[in-house]
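ok trying again, last paste got cut off:
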Amino acid sequence: MMPLSYRSPKTEVRESKIHGHGLFATADIAKDEVVAVKGGHIVDRKTLREQITPRLGPVEIQIDDDLFIALVTDDERELSMLYSNHSCNANLGVRGEITFVAMRNVRAGEELTHDWAMTDDDDYSVECQCGAPNCRKILTGKDWQRPELQKRYAGYFSAYLARKIAMRCHSERSEESHNRRSDHTEKLV
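nice, full thing came through this time. structure:
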């Protein structure tokens, strides 16, 4: 069968210290070079939670509030999985919705990881096992809202989350502007 996802020929899957199997660079990878592209089926949240996750575990990438790309059968696991583990000190970011690129130059031998804050907007809280010096210890599906992560990963959030971040910033600026106008009006009265 044809692969559902793409992994660069400069990568290989092998045992990871972070979790199970991970994706590793077998050659140097340049900043912004495409490392992987997630493929699969487009499913809604209800289908994912009720039919897919109970059988296959976390196998999805979120692309909108209620849409995900995921494998749907166990036979598709090897054809779809990227094996990019989470790290709080990630070296991969997202371009668009499903393309993973290097956020910096990556040396051969490094594990290729992404921070779930760049792709997830969900209601979960899990203990982090990444072991990075800057580990957050607890990951949530709302970490994308953290200002320090928005700054660190600027330009590397999924397009879906980048839109949400931009809308929040616009909303906050509009509210600040409204409050300043209200303060000025009160002073004139």
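cool. Helices lie at 45-56, 77-80, 147-152, 159-188. The first strand starts at residue 6 and ends at 7.
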